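Memo to structure team: turn this sequence into structure tokens by end of day. - J.P.
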Amino acid sequence: MTESITSKYVPSWTRGEQLNELTQIDRYDEMMTGIVRSIESEKRELQLNGEEVTLQGELLIVALPNGVTGYCAAKDFAIHEFKNTRKLVGRKAKFVIKEILLEQKMVILSGKEAQKRTIAEFWEKLIELDKAGQLKEHTFTGVVSGTSQDRRGITHVRILGQDCHMPRTEWSWNSRDIVDVSEGEEIEVKVTRFDLERKLVEVSRRLTLPDPFQLLEKLDVGDPIAGKVSRVDPLHGIFVQMESGLDVKASKVKSLESPIVGDMVTCRILQPIRREAGGRIKGRVVIVGYPAGKRKRKDLGSFLFE
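Reply from structure team:
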């Protein structure tokens, strides 16, 4: 039984130095960072803790530092089960060594145990920062674990294994954001509130970004400002992005040709840039010219006559 396993799977180590390093990591109960390389879905029989056991289900093949290969049962990858484990391929995660099988040259890993430890570390850090009054200044690095398209548009962010949530309004300073982010993407966030008892954490990406209001608050109605057309929507209209990164609603003078995305424009302030309750920033401008000239709209059918 063990011979078939050895012949089928890549040995976790091929050099003595690799085994020595694994043994040391196991002895000191340290965590390792690995990337899920692939998944196997077959029945396996192994010796675990001195007993012969049968493992059924999906097995993750994990690339570890120094050319080592680890093996982790899919159900032991994280605290929460994944409906589609194929999405785990390419994911980076923390692991602890569950057992080193010398005969089979296999390292069995647990991502779930590592996640429990990192979550504990996260809460310790959170409570420490909160007691010291430093939580508002601290920036965490999180990984986007998913998004929802409901009214609140929640983005799910995982920090040190802890699942956090972020409303759409906390993505940036813009008031009309459609959150465009990919699962697995790393982002910087700040914790805005948490519930220790229920283990709930709300975070904000907006608070890690420069506040555009500092650059725009002195502008008054009629003042000129340059910008770039960021969106032209048949329902919601035109939006212009200021140099500060803030998007504002825009109209145009009747004599001008309609803008397209990417046009550099000269605008006048129509409604003052103001900060609303909750920190959101809004304003309105009117496009009065194209200082760099008008971009030509591409004719998708022109190739027929070339």
